[in-house]
Design a protein that fits this description.
Blueprint (H helix, E strand, L loop, with lengths): L7 H30 L4 H11 L1 H8 L5 H11 L3 H29 L4
Helix pairs in contact: 1-2, 1-3, 1-5, 2-5, 3-5, 4-5
Length: 113
Amino acid sequence: MDMDVKDPFIATLIFSFFIAIGVILGGALIGGIAAFLVGDQPLTRMFRLANSLKIWAIVAAIGGTFDTFYNLEKGLFDGETKFLVKQLLLIISATGGAQLGALIISWFTQESM
């Protein structure tokens, strides 16, 4: 199987992975600054934020629209498995990015997931 990174679907997979990482890292780091400003424990807050932002990172990475669900429906009920597989891979990619982002924050804060 030849993977061409210029293929729009492969590029979308890569983008969704890194967008999810960015949402987790950015949200947790900026949230840590806010925690510091209000006198809360920044590292503990960052860890909690990273874990609670996972679902939003996935939603942001897949576009936050109903296109993904429409394509899943198309794949499930219309028998177009190509759409189903692509959307599942997109969701898995975004989930992996969100999980990696939370893991990086976990390493940074030295808290266990």
